[in-house]
Amino acid sequence: MAASTRSVQCALRRAVVPSLVVILGATGTGKSKLAIEIGKRLHGEIISADSMQVYQGLDIITNKVTPEELAQCRHHMIGFVDPVVSSYTVVDFRNKALTLIDDMHCRNTLPIIVGGTNYYIESLLWKVLVDTGGNEESGRGGDGAARRKLELEKLGGAELHKRLAEVDPDMAAMLHPNDKRKIARSLQIHEETGVPHSLWLEEQRGQEGGDGLGGPLRYPDPCIFWLRADMEALDRRLDARVDEMLSAGLIEELRDFHVRYNQQNAQDNGQAYQQGIFQSIGFKEFHDYLTAPESSTQQDKDALREKGIEAVKIATKRYARKQNKWVRNRFLKRPGDNVPAVYSLDVTDVSTWEETVLNPALQILEHLSKGETPPIPPIRVQGAEQRNSRSHHTCDVCDKVIIGDLEWTAHLKSKRHYSFVRKRKRDLDGDQAHGARSPPAAPAQTLSKDTGAAVAPGCS
């Protein structure tokens, strides 16, 4: 009760507008740089929303800010979790970060959220997480909840999906059978509360300010910046950054960390690199190099090292695209009353950074602080008026499950799908040419039972 009263008092005294700044963007776009400059000028403090930077160690591979950068602006949520802990969750992050934001508001300090971990950021912007009242969610018994989650994730995706379909068919229909992490989470929620996850989400959507996308916004006036770059330019920048990491001692950092925290585990039962800090890009990619037998020749070790470097570069660029896709899907293609505006800043040319990034950001914040409409409009994408239902589709031609109407439409237009359609047609023509019994004539199109949209033959 005391904490709740303090929160209300802080909200009444708060003079910070906007309520917080969120800086989104792919890795390598300079999010931390912009955050520091805004923080220095506007009396702000930075909260890192990066699921790997919460752990101690691996400063190079997780791209933590340097001591010099830390000295320029106060940072939070960096390097405070023991790296052997695997039970740290998004709920733990949310609870700590919301307390920090509340404290900053009390001090009329601008919270600046920076990071690329989408579910961390969503947990702060929207009321989207389920509080089960025990175990993992309340911070008690987190190790037990983590062990249970591990037990579930060891099962195959098909088995997990089958179990979820038995207790929560609505949720199972919204999750891809390969998404073991989310399926396991939904099963945990049902086990701990006795209530299907889908009903919890329905309750959130029914709250005042909520809609089909989830619960309401926590803060009424956030300012969202999306740092964007031409992907070819960003790819070159990311390759160069990996090279810089190598020069800074990346291999030595990984080897030292592996010896101290991971070597015994890898020998005992293997390392799946799916928990805690071991999910960081770099560990899985350099696994063969780090675990190479002592008897390996130098030539073999060098080959494994080069293979690891190339794998890190590929994984980094793939992750950058995933981050941008999340911004487009979550903020731009699925608008609603509880989706804040997003201001796009072009970071392609680093030589014009002040003119194209910093100055426009400060100008937008200045107008928002005065209650004025910024001269730079927020970004919207074509088709933003569409709502994306999390409906379940199966393409028999490609033998693939697709979740979401927009994703389904994109799949039907994809080169991969058309390639399979052409291959099936050639196979059928070949069978007929060799005297095989002709199959019944199929219509040129069928209708998806979920959307009524036109569907290519063989897809349902």
UniProtKB/TrEMBL annotation:
Residues 393-417 form the Zinc finger double-stranded RNA binding domain. The keyword Mitochondrion applies. Its main location: cytoplasm. Its EC number is 2.5.1.75. It holds the Pfam family IPPT. InterPro entries: Dimethylallyltransferase (IPR039657), IPP_transferase_euk (IPR030666), IPT (IPR018022), P-loop_NTPase (IPR027417), Znf_C2H2_jaz (IPR022755), Znf_C2H2_sf (IPR036236). Gene3D superfamilies: 1.10.20.140, Classic Zinc Finger, P-loop containing nucleotide triphosphate hydrolases. GO terms for biological process: tRNA modification. It is found in: Cytoplasm; Mitochondrion. Keywords: ATP-binding, Cytoplasm, Metal-binding, Mitochondrion, Nucleotide-binding, Phosphoprotein, Transferase, Transit peptide, tRNA processing, Zinc, Zinc-finger. Residues 427-460 are annotated as: Disordered. It comes from the Eukaryota. It catalyses: adenosine(37) in tRNA + dimethylallyl diphosphate = N(6)-dimethylallyladenosine(37) in tRNA + diphosphate. One of its GO terms (molecular function) is tRNA dimethylallyltransferase activity. One of its GO terms (cellular component) is mitochondrion. Belongs to the IPP transferase family. NCBIfam families: miaA. PANTHER family: TRNA DIMETHYLALLYLTRANSFERASE. Catalyzes the transfer of a dimethylallyl group onto the adenine at position 37 of both cytosolic and mitochondrial tRNAs, leading to the formation of N6-(dimethylallyl)adenosine (i6A37). Mediates modification of a limited subset of tRNAs: tRNA(Ser)(AGA), tRNA(Ser)(CGA), tRNA(Ser)(UGA), as well as partial modification of the selenocysteine tRNA(Ser)(UCA). TRIT1 is therefore required for selenoprotein expression. This is tRNA dimethylallyltransferase. It comes from Betta splendens (Siamese fighting fish).
